Amino acid sequence: GTAFADAVPPAGSRSYDVIVIGGGFAGVTAARELKAKGKRTLILEARDRVGGRAWTSTFSGVPIEFGATWIHPSQTLIWNEVQRLGIAKVDDPFPDFTVFATESGGYAKQDLAFLEHQDALLRRFVEGAEQYLPQPYDPFQRADLLVDLDKLTLGDRARQLRLSTLEQNWVSATTGAYGGGFERGSLTQLAHWWALCGYDTETFHGINVTRPVGGLSGVIGKMLAETGATIVYNAPVSKVADNGSRVQVTANGLVYDAGAVVVAVPVNVWNSINFSAGLPAEFGRMSTQTVGVPTAKKILIQVQGDIGRPLVNGKSGALLDLVIANAEKSSQGSVLIGFSVNPNLDANNLSQIQSAVSEVLPGTEVLSVKGHDWGKDAYAKGGWTFRRPGQLLGSLRTVRQPYGRLIFAGSDIATGWAGYVDGAIESGIQAGAIAAGLSGPGAPA
Ligand SMILES: Cc1cc2nc3c(=O)[nH]c(=O)nc-3n(C[C@H](O)[C@H](O)[C@H](O)COP(=O)(O)OP(=O)(O)OC[C@H]3O[C@@H](n4cnc5c(N)ncnc54)[C@H](O)[C@@H]3O)c2cc1C
Question: Where, in this chain's numbering, is FAD bound (predicted)?
Fold first, then answer.
């Protein structure tokens, strides 16, 4: 690994070519690009680990992911990375039944063929995306066609389509829940993912199947070892001061300085850092509006006995939006993974989660739970990226531009797979290249 990991560089040697703030996939990728350009690079990471919203841990004796989990060949940057690092991949087994809302307001077990109803509704949501998002990696190609569309929430779209309550409940787990609620997420974000999936239902589901063995923390650990950067853990950056020729970065009361800084923290966190030279209004606005879903939670649920492999599609506004089976079982039986964007769910409240599970999988006894509330996590303040109405055309292009000696990075502001590890790598590559130019000799003073 890195020779200086965990050591705080002594006074007098806190000067670097480039400082990268945040050691998620975007920051670590940027640091690696900078190494390739011969730059002395420092990573300042708030946590005691790298990976950010990708975090491999264990629960009830089985390995689990608290954040990002799956990769897919259409996500070429992360897929090739895993391939190149010689890390094996494994497919999660298919579910064996599904659970959907019923006419009478409850839930019923269905065979997998029932999923076709959900897919048909999903395709109606994103109909026309081939025309208005013809180039998945350049969402601005037909900006002219997006002017009205980018104003729509997913709920607006459901109303446009005149979906019944039951239809909305059937499609909630793959639309509203992704967006942090029907009234939060934008239609264009869903359509953008659809475009990246080749406008194809099978790929849309296929992106949630394949995992790198050892988890995504294993992948980023190997990437970090290649950066050759100095990394300081437990170093939350509180202040960034760009004086025009150098940038001073403060963490834990210590001041570091560099010719350029890559800010690779989540958009939702931008407003908790003091950018003392000021930033264009779009930055603060985007951070206030949020990009990462602020109510996103992932909950690991250990249950009694083997209950098979459910795929539960919660109703719009349910406590649990999606419940699936973890690939590995514990010694007690099945382990379930719940996703929730409901602000009222306490991700570690066993009795609340027991009643939510009983509603959708009657007779299932919950033994233990362990959840992570990404919105309450000070260094994330949200989960996966899902842009809000107006952000694609409104702020995204501005915040992707370097501002003085600062370059912002992260999956949240990727133009490709925003909301996925692949987008973080995309953004890290771009930011690293720009920062190398800014920090080098002949850089604008
Ligand atoms: C529940 C969940 C499930 C997901 N599932 C998938 C999936 O299956 N596949 C997929 O590809 N993606 C998935 N994602 C999305 C994926 O996790 C993110 O897109 C990606 O990890 C973001 O990387 P990043 O580097 O842009 O940001 P982050 O990973 O958030 O990295 C930012 C880093 O900055 C650090 N930081 C924050 N504030 C400061 C500060 N003040 N000073 C210093 N450091 C700071 C953080 O600690 C963190 O390490 C999921 C996300 C969640 C939450």
Answer: 45-46, 237
Which residue among 19, 25, 53, 89 has the greatest number of ligand 1 atoms within 8 angstroms of its CB, and so is best to mutate?
A: 53
Other Cβ atoms less than 10 A from the Cβ of 265: the count is 29
- 410-428: pLDDT as tens digits: 999 999 999 999 999 999 9
| Distance between Cα 361 and ligand 1 center (Å) | 31
Residues within 6 Å of ligand 1 by CB: 21-27, 44-47, 52-54, 67-70, 236-237, 264-266, 269, 273, 296, 298, 374, 379-380, 383-385, 410-411, 419-424
Confidence (pLDDT) at 314 = 98
CATH class as words, domain 93-208+295-380: alpha beta
The average pLDDT across 385-393 equals: 98
Interface predicted TM-score (ipTM) of this complex, two decimals: 1.00
Q: Is residue 103 marked as binding?
A: no
Do 247 and 257 touch, CB atoms closer than 8 A? yes
**DSSP at 173:** G
pLDDT tens per residue, range 27-82: 999 999 999 999 999 999 999 999 999 999 999 988 999 999 999 999 999 999 99
Neighbours of 376 (CB within 10 A): 13
Q: Where are the domains of the chain?
A: 15-52+214-289+385-439, 93-208+295-380
pLDDT for the residue numbered 441: 58
The pLDDT confidence band at residue 2, using thresholds 50, 70 and 90, is very low
Provide the Cα torsion 141, 142, 147, 148; round to 10°: -130
Burial class (CB in 10 A: 0-12, 13-18, 19+), 387: buried
Rounded to whole angstroms, the Cα distance separating 330 from 311 reads 19
Expressed in angstroms and rounded, the spacing between residue 341 Cα and the centre of ligand 1 is 17
Among 378, 323, 367, CA closest to 345: 323
From atom 27 of ligand 1, which residue's Cα is the shortest distance away?
24
CATH architecture for residues 15-52+214-289+385-439 = 3-Layer(bba) Sandwich (3.50)
